[in-house]
Every structure is written in C-alpha cells, then in structure tokens.
Amino acid sequence: MKKISLLLAGLCLCGIIFAQNVKQKNPQEAIRKYWFVMLIKGPNRNQDSTTGAAIQTEHLNNIRHLYQEGIIKVAGPFDENDQWQGLFIFDCSTKEEVENYLQTDKAVTSGRLRYQIQGWYTSPTGSFKPGKPKVKI
Q1: Residue 96: how many other CB atoms lie within 10 Å
Q2: Secondary structure class of 31 (helix, strand, coil)
Q3: pLDDT tens-digit profile of 69-109?
Q4: Can you tell me whether residue 137 is helix, strand or coil?
Q5: Nearest 5°: CA angle at 59, between 54 and 62?
Q6: CA nearest 105: which of 134, 137, 65?
Q7: What backbone phi and psi angles, to 5 degrees, belong to 33?
Q8: Strand order in the sheet with 72-77
Q9: pLDDT by residue (tens digit) across 32-58?
Q10: For 46-112, where are the E strands, in sequence order?
Q11: Cα angle at 119 between 117 and 121, to 5 degrees?
Q12: Torsion over CA: 119, 120, 124, 125 (sign)
C-alpha cells in the first residue's frame, strides 16, 4: 500500500512539473476560456425597412468597436438558417461581462436578436491572442 501511495504521489508531482514546464516554455499553448454567443432570431422582427437597416448599421458598428477593443475575437452571420442568425466569440472574464457587452448591441436591445452564451476553450493564438488587433476593420 505504501508503494502505491508513493507511486501515485510521484506521478502527481511529475504531472505538476510537466505542466509548469509547458507553461514556462510556451505560454501560448495554454488553453483559455472564451465565450461563444449564438445569435438567434428575436421576437421583435417586424420593424419597417428603414428602421431595420438603421438597427443593422448600429449592430455592425458595435461589432467593429468591440473587435477594435479586443473584446470580440470572431463575429459573423450564418447562411440560410431559420433561427440561427450569427455568432460571436468574446474574450471576457465572466458571462456577466459578455451579457453587459451584448446590451450595447442595438439588434439585441431592439429584440431583433436574442442570444445564448456558452463557455468555450481554445489556445490563445492567432485570432485569439489577448489584446487589441493590429489590423483595423
């Protein structure tokens, strides 16, 4: 029994040392939590075309702003789906922070869109590097 306990303790220690070495050698390989937001048709989609176009313009301007600030990493619409309209991937600390940013979106606050939020994990490389993007859109 004592040998098994020592073996398990040794394996745990090796795992901890390995994880620390990976972090120190290449911190970009660490997995990080982001927030996946599914945009779904909302209950209020009966605006006239002028109002609908104004809401869409504000929606796109808000996406650009949040992207430039490094808050949204990915955004885009879906092709031909009855309910799914688009998605966002947010780089935020909490779900509540994501919800607060979603309230800055006119398409959400007008009821044209509603959303579902889910935690999502990936390596912080490429588009998912922390901070503001170097290229403006």
Answers
A1: 10
A2: coil
A3: 999 999 999 998 789 999 999 999 999 999 999 999 999 99
A4: coil
A5: 125
A6: 65
A7: -90, 130
A8: 72-77, 84-90, 32-41, 113-122
A9: 999 999 999 999 999 999 999 999 999
A10: 72-77, 84-90
A11: 145
A12: negative
